C-alpha cells in the first residue's frame, strides 16, 4: 500500500492531476477483483456495475483531458492557487468540511458513515492541489532548480500533512 501511494505521489509530479486522480479510482476495481479471488467475497450486480462505471468514467476523463502546460516553479503553482476562482473553491470546501466536523459529526457521526466520508473527500480535493505542487517542487529540485527555498513549497507541504492527518483521522472513524 505504501509503495502504491508513493507511486501515486510521483505520478502527480509527472502527469496532469486530471489524469492521475481518475486512474487512482481504478484501484477500486483491482481491490474488488482481488477480494473476490483471494478472500472469496461475492461481487453482486451493483458491485460489477460500480466497477464498470469506474472504468467508463476514468476512460472518458482520460480521453478528454486538456493538455497541461509546463510549470517552471512552485511560484507558478502559487499564482494559480491564489486566483480568485480557486480561493473561492477552497473557502467553500473548508466551510463545508468545518460544518460537517463541528455540526454534523457530534449529532450524526456515529450513525451516518457519509459524514466522515464527506470530510475525507473534501480534504482530499484540497490535498490534490498541494500534492501536485509538492511533486513539482521535488521534481524541479532533483533536476537542479532548488524549490525548497520558496516559502510556498513549505506551505504546500503543511497543507499536504494537515490534509493527510485529517483524512486518516476520519477514515479511522469510519
TrEMBL record:
Organism placement in taxonomy: Eukaryota, Viridiplantae, Streptophyta, Embryophyta, Tracheophyta
Record key words, sorted: Cell membrane, Endosome, Ion transport, Magnesium, Membrane, Transmembrane, Transmembrane helix, Transport
Subunit description: Homodimer.
One Pfam match: Mg_trans_NIPA
Keyword Cell membrane recorded: yes
Listed transmembrane segments: 12-34, 46-66, 86-106, 113-134, 154-171
Topological category with respect to the lipid bilayer: Multi-pass membrane protein
Main location as per UniProt: membrane
Family: Belongs to the NIPA (TC 2.A.7) family.
General function of this protein: Acts as a Mg(2+) transporter. Can also transport other divalent cations such as Fe(2+), Sr(2+), Ba(2+), Mn(2+) and Co(2+) but to a much less extent than Mg(2+).
Listed GO CC annotations: early endosome; plasma membrane
Family annotation (InterPro entries): EmrE-like, Mg_trans_NIPA
Compartments in which it is found: Cell membrane; Early endosome; Membrane
Protein name, entry field: Probable magnesium transporter
GO molecular-function terms, A-Z: magnesium ion transmembrane transporter activity
